[in-house]
Amino acid sequence: MPGVLGSVVDVSSHPASSLFDRRPVVFTAHSAESAYLRERICAYVLNEGVIPINPWMVGGYFLYGLVDVEVTWAQQNNIPVRWFDLDHYGEAITSLSARPGSN
């Protein structure tokens, strides 16, 4: 094929080109009751432009209720904690201003 060797290919428009961008990493802690929504939660975080670290993607349902421990650790280490409300199907994810039930 003439012209293939030595030609320059513009890959900046390829979807994989953003893989090397630096992005914030977010630890997505949630309860066992919403573990079945782990893929939707990760998709939501990715759509927000950050990288999710989700323990449920690795450990499955065996992590039990460690969310309170994770939140306590984050707060003790000055790591911001954000709260979200999920509908049963994970289709509606709403940002909350405070921890649910902390009125």
Short description:
The protein has 103 residues and is of the alpha+beta class. The chain has helices spanning 38-47, 56-59, 67-76, and strands at residues 25-27, 51-53, 83-86, 93-96.
Secondary-structure map:
Layout: E1 25-27, H1 38-47, E2 51-53, H2 56-59, H3 67-76, E3 83-86, E4 93-96
Parallel strand pairs: 1-2
Antiparallel strand pairs: 3-4
Would you kindly provide a written description of the structure presented here, covering whatever features stand out?
The protein is α+β, with helices and mostly antiparallel strands and 103 residues long. It has one domain. Helix content is 23%, strand content 14%. The chain contains 3 helices and 4 strands; from the N terminus they run E-H-E-H-H-E-E. The strands form 2 sheets. The chain has a two-stranded parallel ribbon. The chain has a two-stranded antiparallel ribbon with strand order 3-4. The protein is globular, with a radius of gyration of 19 Å. The model has no long low-confidence stretch (mean pLDDT 77).
